[in-house]
Amino acid sequence: SDGQKKKVLIAVSLSKPAHLFVWDEPLNYIDVISRIQIEEIIREAKPTLIFVEHDKRFVENIINKIIQL
After folding, report:
1. What domains are defined for the chain?
2. Which class for 26: exposed (0-12), middle (13-18), buried (19 or more C-beta within 10 A)?
3. Distance CA 14, CA 12 (A)
């Protein structure tokens, strides 16, 4: 499914030793439980993220600084 593919792509990108991630709508098609797990991983890893996301709750849960265009 599209959700499973997205989860794999997010897991692979977060497993890399990068400090900057550029994502476009990373949570499309992902179930609620997986979204929560992804939020926890991001909060622990504290990477720099540049992303487009319409899920305001997700954004508010993981960011410490936001720049809106």
Report:
1. 2-62 (3.40.50.300)
2. buried
3. 6
